[in-house]
Structure formats: structure tokens, C-alpha cells
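A quick aside before the break. I want you to see a complete sequence-to-structure record at least once, exactly as it would be stored in a machine-readable document. Don't worry about memorizing anything.
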Amino acid sequence: MTSMLDEAPDSATEGDAKGMGKCRSFGMILNVIIGTGFFAIPHAYYKSGLPLSIIATVLATGFGMLGAVWTLETVSRSRGFKYAKSKQLKHKVFMNKITSLQIEFSESMGIFCGKIGAAFCHIVMLLYALGSLWAYVSMFSSIGASITMQYILKWEGECIIEDNPSFSCRTVYSFFVALLCALMIGFESFNMNWMSHVQSFFMGYRVVAFLLIALSCIVSLVVNGNKWTNSLQESIEKMESYHSEMKMFGFNWSGFPTLFSAVCFAFNCAYNLPSIVPLMGKERHSAGCLTVVALVVSGTLYLGLGVLLAVTLGPSTREFVILNWADFGQKGFQMDGQTDVDAASQAGKDGLKIPAAFAIAIKLTVMLFPMANILSVFPLIAGSVGFSFFSSFPDHFKKSYGRAGPLLLRYLVTLPPFLLALFFPSLDVVIEFCGLSAVFLVVFIPALLQFESKRKCGTEWGTPYSGWWSHGVFIGASVVYGIVALSVGICELVANG
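That is the input. The structure line, written in C-alpha cells, reads:
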């Protein structure tokens, strides 16, 4: 099959560019998976208990892989259909491959599921984009306000926008909302290709940040024996004791809506792939393998650090865990109400501590990471949704507006989240909203596209990304998983008020 696919002719507009190469391609895919969505997971883990959290993360990783690979298969078939139609040929399997011609999520829905399917996809993508970008603006501005109030304005106490902040705290928060808005308006005017260079830098920053996150937890668990916990085992016992008061021996189903929303939000990457893969050039054939590896790495990292953070922080875990680093000092995470001076004094008495300058460096490096990551991911999401909407317009409209069309739609997607974050900054509400809309992009739409595209292609459904995972049994399993998880999540959300 591969040799036939390699021989498939391309139109002049679909020529292969050199592309990004495997390292940059992997970095770009990894960046749209591992990001600020991770920082909602530890709070969800603590609310749900470790057993339920581990099961939910493993399932989300597995079905996320299926949805991502099915998306690549569907885009390949969409290209085959479009190529055959443009050349007035009968559709054949060797035409199914991804080229530099960008075919978006919603366009594939239009090809295989008609106008109603495309309209439904647009609505889901718009809701998710609004929710995720809303969350990103709120995260960026909350961190910026916390750091500014603590280190620049020397504010006594915490600036947490969700905890009835002062006028000064809200003013600084609003300033960062405006700052990010100005930056994003500028970034949106650039071509998407420049983002591949930015992703390479953030892949390195991401490694450093997550290593420091793990180091922060180890400091609190090992060094800070009489502050948070005396040892890792005691911390686990305390967490189990807390959840033993709940039903099902640690399976706290009341926390499932938060958990399900968090993992869906964190693993949602399928709808971004049609924008990324065409930029990979000759490495497009490796897109499936690179995506699967990226999801495995992400799932392992989420699970390991999520459990470690939930165990370390316990009941103090915030909805957006990065804000806990405002309490990080010489002996790790401080107890509620403890100041930096108290921590340093107690650290001297107890003997073990880390240097004050090193503690501040860890704190700032970790807290600045989500802000930097948002600057790189925000344009990708807005660009994917904007181009997806533009691709559904008639050809005469596309020719009339040219490059200005997608840019205008990207601006329309970009601006509303800033208003929402300004007036409704609560992150827990935003994350649950994002997660419930993300399940359609992670599970239902990829499964529907896989089923319909295979059905319409008949025996010519094969692609370079197809394999045993393309079987209908997995499509059915994915749909069942989505329905059951979404139903339980909604029921628990309603029951909890």
C-alpha cells in the first residue's frame, strides 16, 4: 500500500515542501497536548481519589490515541476524495494521503457527513475554542497578577483572583488580560509556519519546568517533614484516610465531573492535527507514530506528576495548581497562613532547607511556564478554528477575501474569550465547560468520521495511517466509552448542584 500511496500524483498546489523534520514535528504535536491543561489535573485527582483518577487517565490516553489516528486517516481520505473530484477520476486507495493541502476537521465532516455534520462540528469547535481560550486568558492573567503583586508591588498576602480579590489585585489581573489581548492580536497576523520554531524552544522549557515541578514536590515530601507531610507514605495514608470517608473506598464519584473534564481538556489534540501535519513535509508519513508517542509521553507525565502533586498538596490543591507555587519556599510548599519569613525561620530550626535564591528561581520558572506556553498555543487554537470556519465558505468567498478571510475569523475567535475572562475569571467552571465540549472532539467526532469515511470509501478506505486500530470494534468501544463517561459526568454534575 505504501508504494502505491507514494506514487499518488499531487496537484501543483499540493507539492511537498521540505517541512519541519521529525524533532520539530514531534515538538509541535507534543506542545498542543502537554500544556496548561495539565495544571487542572492535580485538583481533579484529589477530588476524585487515586484509583478513579488513574483509570480515567489511562482510558483518556487510549481513546485519545484512537481519535487522533482516526483523524489522520479521515483527512487522508478527504484528500483522496477531493483529488479524485478535481481530476474527474474514480476514487482509489492510492489517492488517500496527506499533502501540503490543508483539509480541516470541519471540512472532512462536510465531505463525509454533509452540511449538518459540518455545522455540528463548527458549533462544537467554537464552544471548545471559546472555553479553552477563556481558560488560557484567565490562567495567564491570574499568574501574572500573583507574581506582580508579590514581587513588584510587594503586596502582603495572596492575589488569587478567585478568592474575592482586592481592587488592586483585580486591577492588575485586568492589566494582564489587556496585555495578552494585545500580544495575541499581533501574533495572529503571522503565518502558522513560524510557530514551529517557537515550539522547539518551548519543548526545552517544558522539560525544565516539569523537572522543577517534580523537584518541588520531592522537597516538600522529603525535606519539609513537619510542614505538609512527614514522608511520602504518610501523605498517601492521609489522602486515603480522607477518601475513606467517601463511598466506594476511594472512588469519589462526586469528583468525576471535574476529573473527566480535566482529562478531556488535557488530551484534546485531534482537531489541531489537520493544521500541523501539512507543515511536516516529508515527515508526514510519520505523523501517526509521532502522535501516538506524544500521547503516551503525555499520559505518563500527567499520571506521574498529577498523583505526585495531589499527594503533596492534599486539600490545598488549587483548581489551577500552578498558583500553589506562590506558597513555595525554602522548605517546599508552606502551610496555610505561613509567610516566607516564618518558613525560612522554621527551616533554619529544622536543619534541612534549600537556598532562598534557588527557591525563588524554582517558583518563578514554574509559574512563568504556563504563561509562556499560552503565548505559543493560543495562536494554534485560534488559527485552527478560524481556518476551519473559513474552509466551509463558498469558493468565490475564499477567492474574494484571500488571506484576510482566515485572519478575520481568527480575530473573531480570539476576542470573545478576553471579555469572558475579564468578567468571569473562575477556572473550575471554565475547565468543566471545556471538558464537556472537548469529549466530542476527542471521542465522538473522530469516531463518526472514521465510520462514515470508511463506509463511503468502500474497499478503497486504506491510508498510510490505517491498521488493526481502524476496525469497527474500536469505533464502537470509543462511542460507548464517550456515552458512559459523559452521562456519569453530567449526572454527578447535576447531583452536586
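Two observations worth writing down. Residues 1-17, 225-235, 240-249, 336-349 have pLDDT under 50 and may be disordered. The first strand starts at residue 328 and ends at 329. We'll return to this after the break.
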